[in-house]
Amino acid sequence: MTKKILIVEDEQSIIKLVKFNLEKAGFQVDVATDGQMALDKVQQSVHDLVVLDLMLPKMDGLEVCRKLRQEKKHIPILILTAKADEFDKVLGLELGADDYLTKPFSPRELTARIKAILRRVEAIQETQQVSKKEKQIQVGDLSIDLEGYEVMFKQEKLDLTPKEFELLVFMANHRGKVLSRDQLLNTVWNYDYVGDSRIVDVHVSHLRDKIEVDSRNPVYIKTIRGIGYKFEGPGYK
Ligand code: CA
Question: Which fold has domain 131-231?
Answer without folding.
Answer: Arc Repressor Mutant, subunit A (1.10.10)
